[in-house]
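User: Hi! I'm a student and our assignment asks us to look at how structure tokens line up with a sequence. Could you show me two examples?

Assistant: Happy to help. In each example below, the sequence comes first and the structure tokens follow. Example one:
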Amino acid sequence: MSGEGSYHPSQDQLEIVGAVDDALVELLPLARLHQSAEETADVWTQLDGLGAFGISLAEEAGGSALGAAEEALIVLALGRRLASPTVLATIAAAHVVPAELRTGAAGTARVVGAYRRGDQVVVIGDPDAQLVLLRDGAGAALHRLDGPNAELDSRNWVARLQGVSKLGEPLARFDEAGLLRLRLLDAAALAGVAQAALEMGVEYAQMREQFGRPIGSQQAIKHHCANMAIQARCARDQVSFAAVALDQGRADAAISVESAFLIASTAAIENAGKNIQIHGGIGFSDEADPHLLVKRAQLLTAVAGGVEAATERLADLPSVA
């Protein structure tokens, strides 16, 4: 980072992330989600080759020793391609996974996301997962997953949710700094979903014709696309700003991260909804892609604790002079 006055990632950081993003275009096509909810073993191996599972780990631990800015923008790129929740949870958990379980993607224990709903723990299923990253109120911890995991719907990426009454003692807990980093990555993934919805909506508006003209020439569609562009840009900028604040240890880092999650989750949900409207009736069909974005935005927001909890955390933070 080029000094205390920086508010955005540097050009070098953007180039690193850009190289990863280019590789994800062919690696994670949206069409794959109609066949399976989880990524294939080959995808996991290739993501490991890109360094996805050790972005910010020290080099002696097998990582790339990059900062929050690079990690957040790479997760944003993964969110834009709707990388599976298990991939995202495994990346997020890398900060607390015990060393003996961290041996490269082929040997690293997969981590599923989970959150508490009432007196039950809801686990987002992956039959090959061994660990659970559980969000419980304002905290988060890593647990070993014992017993059968949730089954997956092979026709879609959506996991069937299975409640489990309890988990064993945590292997590790996220401290205050770890929770901020976790919420930053939540925000980044959701900002990626917001961007994906914008791109899908604009592409369809340019391609779909009505009365001999692209529907994107209609004022109502233009307004939707413009609003989606603003939402996606605000989400991305706030995520990158928050990541820089974390890297620099600034006093406003907590407010920036919580704001990033609030803005990104709202952008993802609203953009995904507007994308459905642009697509019309086909947007609701199982064969099309728009509904995938709606479900993913809702799921990632729920796993992260929801929008209401984020607003409460923001309200409780002390003001920064």
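Example two works the same way, sequence first and then tokens:
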Amino acid sequence: MDWSDPTRQDSARGRAIRMSWSLLWLFFLTPVVHDLATGDYGPVRLAVGAFGLLVVVVCYVSLVFGGVGWFGLFGRVEGALRKALDSDRAQQVTCLVLWATAVALILTFDDAWLGLMVYVSVSVGAGLRFPRSMWAILGCVLSGLVLGVLLDAAGNDMLVLAFVTVLTGGLMIGVRRLLETLAELREAREIVAQLSANEERLRMARDLHDVLGHSLSLITLKSELAGRFLPGHVERAAEQVADIERVSRQALVDVREAVGGYRRPTFAVELAGARIAARAVGIELIQVPEQWPVCPDPEAEAVLAWALREAVTNTMRHSGARRCTVALVTGPVWSLDVTDDGRGAASREGNGLTGLRERFAAADGSIGVGVPEGGKGFRLTASVPVLPGKDGEGQIDPGANR
């Protein structure tokens, strides 16, 4: 798994939250630091303890940040860590160094330092692949129990330590596997989108062949006949030329209809493009509901899809927003509502909104722009009637192209 995959880098806010959550666990080093500061240790042991804690913190941060996700907040430092831990072997060596340092510190000082095994468990859960991480966590538990016995630690404390070690390590295993699954799903989605595009190109080539093949063959045949009839049978040649004109006009109509059908946007395609664009610029895209129903009127869907494309494009390019909500309401009239928390609309409408108004006027619909209820950002509302007598109960996956 390539943890430097840019598709995993979402908004700066999300990266900061994950970083804060990871660093929050360092708070539980407070008892160890307090013991080191107030234990009246000599300068040598004090220096050894401080250096050992530094090694523990560096290994912990490197493994957790490398296993759970790189946060894109530390520039060259993060790049160096990512490069250093780019292989499973490097992560295994880091885990071994962390475990050995924790054991040495516990033996050097006293049972107050047994809590370091929790950090070792969290680190191996985040940094190693399953099932190797599971066996490493069990090793941390056994190490903590053996060290507790050697240092005459209280039995209740040892049981609590074993429970916390298993719990935190298992939690990190779950988080890592969840993020691995999400990364695989993103990769699978991109492959599916590419395959869908290839299939669409093949279908378009096949349809154009079916549309034009017969017409062009007929035009070729009529042209040969017209040539044979000239110059002796001008009237029969003229009939063939008239047939050529009629067939070519019909072929032109068929091509326009075919191309027009391919150019018609759909909800599935526009929502997929909106999610990709939102992830690229760090905007959280909220879709309501999570699955949109199949529109029984392709023309109405196309008009609303054009509005969705224009609104999302403006949000991604110009708004500076952190969140964008896309909502759809169905019924006799389908309504689309796109809102963001950005800087708001420009003083004058551009060509995009002008074109949308013309499209909705032609479809007996309406479109409006304004400010959301909170008084900040931009809101586009669009509605269009759906032709009656059609069933729209089917569901589509908005992440798949149709």
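Here is something you could point out in your write-up. Residues 60 and 123 are 5 Å apart (CA to CA).
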